[in-house]
Amino acid sequence: MRLKGRDLVELTDYTPEETRFIVETGLEMKRRFYAGERVIPVLPGRTIALIFEKPSTRTRVSFEVAARQLGAGSLYLGWNDLQLARGETLGDTARTLSRYVDGIVARVKEHWKVVELANYSSVPVINGLSDLSHPVQALGDMMTILEKKGRLSGIRLAFVGDGSDNVLNSLIVAASRLGVHIVVASPRELRPNGELLKNALEVSKETGATIEFTEDPREAVKGADVVYTDVWVSMGQEALREERVRLLTPYQVNSKLMSIAGSKAIFMHCLPAKRGEEVTDEVMDGPQSVVWDQAENRLHIQKAVLALLIP
Ligand code: CP
Ligand code: NVA
Asked: Is position 134 annotated as part of the catalytic site?
């Protein structure tokens, strides 16, 4: 399957077959790494630029290491160190960088900025998180579920917490392509992005995926294979903290909620976690938690993404 030269701004641009191919390539990258192939030099001499407007631990480090493990180099460019901070346009920045580098990973405050970069760039642009979505996270998460559960089709994933979360938006789009059933437990004020949901519902018709909503976390986790949560206050939403804590306190993932899910359910979180808010220490550090494997898999899935997309 040929994906060279494609952007990854949103998974809505990818078919079920393409999505599955990326996820399976991620698992293959991991298998080869542990079989001793520390470097798979498919991108010699290439350079990946990372433009970040917000902080990052996992995305930054895993992309930089991924590039290195593929024989490529990487450049971390803080937003405020670029002329962007002085008003150079995203279009001019994208056109300039395209003359130096072979791919751009961008983490932006507002989603339109990554779209703008992709519109003007002649090299692939990969969304490394925006206020709307986090597609590489969702791909890595699907890889983790496949690794842990041996399948994706028919898997039941309960997302408990902020129903308007960027990671959830991408999980819904990824799940729709892979036949995963998502149940979202959130207050009715917090619901996923309508456009992405519409696309996911459309694609679900051909894959058998389903998306349900409830306000009751217990109902959502009953029979779940995966219990997933994310922070109540995402980057850039700090002013909403008080309201979010009020709305979301009943949605904490704790031992009591996990006992309703049952012992076979795994716990996932994209991280960083705010321990004591959306998840307790007991669950994060408990036997059902796979969060460290999930974090590791960002490295392998992003090796797949770079290897497949960068010309
Ligand atoms: N999950 C994730 O994207 O983490 P960072 O914010 O540390 O990159
Ligand atoms: N929803 C979180 C995800 C962080 C990886 C945020 O945007 O802050």
From this structure: yes
The parent domain of residue 93 ranges over 11-133+298-309
Q: Would you state the structure tokens that stand for residue 311, as one six-digit string? A: 């010309």
CB 185 within 8 A of CB 215: yes
What are 243-258's pLDDT values in tens digits? 999 999 999 999 999 9
Domain presence at residue 28: yes
Tell which atom from ligand 2 comes closest to the C-alpha of 137: 5
Among residues 107, 156, 177, 181, the one annotated as catalytic is 107
Residue 2 lies in a domain: no
Strand partners, 253: 279
Span 56-86, pLDDT tens digits: 999 999 999 999 999 999 999 999 999 999 9
Ligand 1 binding pocket mutation candidate from 50, 59, 105 (most atoms within 8 A of CB):
59
Taking CA atoms only, the protein residue closest to ligand 2 atom 1 is: 234
Mean pLDDT of the chain: 98
Q: Verify that 160 and 70 share a domain, yes or no.
A: no
Token duo for residue 294: 């999930």
Q: Are residues 73 and 214 in the same domain?
A: no
Q: Give the pair of three-digit tokens for residue 6.
A: 């494609």
The total domain count for the chain is 2
Cα→Cα distances 177→9, 173, 188, Å:
16, 7, 25
Residues in the ligand 2 pocket, defined by CB under 6 Å = 129, 165-167, 230-231, 234-235, 270
Q: Are residues 180 and 226 in the same domain?
A: yes
Q: Within this chain, do residues 157 and 49 fall inside the same structural domain, yes or no?
A: no
Q: Is 298 annotated in the active site?
A: yes
Q: Which residues of the chain form beta strands (DSSP E)? A: 47-52, 73-78, 103-107, 125-127, 156-160, 181-185, 210-214, 226-229, 266-269
Segment 245-300, tens digit of pLDDT: 999 999 999 999 999 999 999 999 999 999 999 999 999 999 999 999 999 999 99
- Quick check: pTM over 0.85? yes
Q: What is the CATH number of the domain that holds 113?
A: 3.40.50.1370
